Amino acid sequence: LDLLQRWKYEWIQKPDMRLYSSVGFGIGYYKNFKNDGFSRYSTSDLEFQFVPVGIAVGQDWFWFVEAGVGTQYTGGRAGVGFRF
């Protein structure tokens, strides 16, 4: 379970394309997991995620690609999203 407060700045904001950066801080809680070959029954950690650059293309349904570093992922990720 990750509870992350995220702040996002959109450098370019057009109806069908957004270029953005974001930063997030929060807490993660894990139960019954293995890390480095050791079983841990529960732990909570401070978490962060920094995305220096991301791009989203589309309107309601959109594709996104972003590069980031943090506890959720380091490197790049891509996917599909939906705006409410």
Strand content: over 45%
Give the distance, in angstroms, between the N- and C-terminal Cα atoms: 23 Å
Structural class, please? mainly beta
Number of strands: 5
Count, helices:
0
List the helices and strands and how they pair.
Elements: E1 2-14, E2 17-35, E3 38-58, E4 61-70, E5 75-82
Task: Please characterize this protein's 3D structure.
- This protein has 84 residues and is mainly β.
- It is built from no helices and five strands.
- The chain has strands at residues 2-14, 17-35, 38-58, 61-70, 75-82.
- It has a five-stranded antiparallel sheet, with no helix packed on it.
- It is elongated, with a radius of gyration of 15 Å.
- The model has no long low-confidence stretch (mean pLDDT 87).
Short précis:
This protein is mainly β and 84 residues long.
What are the defining features of this structure?
single chain, 84 residues, mainly beta, five-stranded antiparallel β-sheet, 5 strands
